Amino acid sequence: MKKEPKRILVTGACGQIGSELTIALRKKYGTDNVVASDLYEPQKGSPIENGLFEKLDVTNFENFEQIVKRHNIDTIVHLAALLSVVGENNPTKCWNVNIGGTLNAFNIGVKHNLLQIFVPSSIAVWGPGIPKIAPQDGILKPRTMYGVTKVTIELLGDYYFNKFGLDCRGIRYPGIISSETPPGGGTTDYAVEIFYKAVKGEKFICFVNEDTRLPMMYMPDCIKAALDLMDAPIDKLTHHCDYNVGAMSFDVKSLANEIRKYYPNFEIEYRPDHRQQIADSWPDDVDDSIARQDWGWQPDYDMPKMVIDMIEKLRNKLI
Q1: Cα 179 to Cα 153, 219, 314, distances in angstroms
Q2: Which CATH number is 43's domain given?
Q3: pLDDT of residue 47
Q4: Domain residues for 309?
Q5: What is the DSSP letter of 143?
Q6: What is the pLDDT of residue 178?
Q7: Is 240 exposed, middle or buried (0-12, 13-18, 19+ CB in 10 A)?
Q8: For residue 181, what pLDDT is reported?
Q9: Across the 319 residues of the chain, what is the mean pLDDT of every consecutive 10-residue run?
Q10: Radius of gyration of the chain from Cα atoms?
Q11: Angle of helix 190-200 relative to helix 303-318, nearest 10 degrees?
Q12: Domain membership flag for residue 2
């Protein structure tokens, strides 16, 4: 018997990851089998417009459930969330959106016997005292509300799997670098903004110090990691919503020097602000050996390869 394709709902589809993961899922499963959703309509000209779209407030259970039932959804890719910097500006809203929305997704998953829910975590789950290379299993002491919500979601994923048998999966994403969507309020946004300034020939004012080193990932690897984990046989998985995944790690000065290979006159000035404290609480890199062992994780991009590709794409878009 031919296996029916998945029917996937993507929440937060207009965000940095959602806008590109939605396209990848439609390419894999068919445009009509992937429903994009967000609190706001997609911008005119967005590729998301070329398929099904629903306006969704993930904190509204009835609205959420109606969309799942209307489209016969069996898989939720739950990306709707407030990020670290935005979350610090309104911690209560960050908790309500991130936790309330995820609980709704999990409860709908149980109620309607969904096949799977993918919900990403973040390097923000760690805090001061974490080793420079963060282990898969270690103490989680985040200093941001965003990080607190991500730790909670990881624990909820374990609970719902053990209590109800719900197939919850997630990745602790590092900073994500994308040529397609602008920054969305995260502490690692400098690693995206720096390319826009360089390609435009403008000076970049960086909000963290030059020696700030953080784990990063290029968007194609971000998408690959999500698709690979979603496809992995559940009996191979030793974790649920908290897999470490790595790709590259660098400080800002090294990134700026790599960019200067293509833009020798690129200028950067360092003016650390409140985001420096957040960045200082995160690890320099991650140990992702468990993801490599369980589901064969392997990134395609290192920093030099990423820089070349980012510059080429932004030149085509901005010049």
Answers
A1: 28, 8, 6
A2: 3.40.50.720
A3: 84
A4: 176-216+247-318
A5: S
A6: 93
A7: buried
A8: 77
A9: 74 94 97 96 86 97 98 98 90 97 98 98 93 95 95 98 98 94 79 95 96 97 98 97 97 98 97 93 96 98 98 92
A10: 19
A11: 50
A12: no
Angle at 280 between CA 263 and CA 18, to 5 degrees: 65
The sheet that has 213-218: what strands, in order across it? Answer: 175-177, 213-218, 248-251
Distance CA 156, CA 251 (A): 33
* Length of the chain (residues): 319
What is the pLDDT, as a whole number, of residue 1? 36
Report the pLDDT value the prediction gives residue 100, as an integer from 0 to 100.
98
Q: Are the beta carbons of 212 and 252 closer than 8 angstroms? A: yes
Give the single-character DSSP code of 43. Answer: P
- State if pTM tops 0.85: yes
- Given a contact cutoff of 8 angstroms between Cβ atoms, the answer to whether 287 and 136 are in contact is yes
Do 31 and 146 have their domain in common?
yes
The whole-angstrom separation of Cα 259 and Cα 168 is 39
Question: Is 276 in contact with 208 (CB distance < 8 Å)?
Answer: yes
Same structural domain for residues 131 and 69? yes
Q: What is the pLDDT of residue 180?
A: 87
Active site residues: 146
Rounded to 5 degrees, what are φ and ψ at 217?
-150, 140
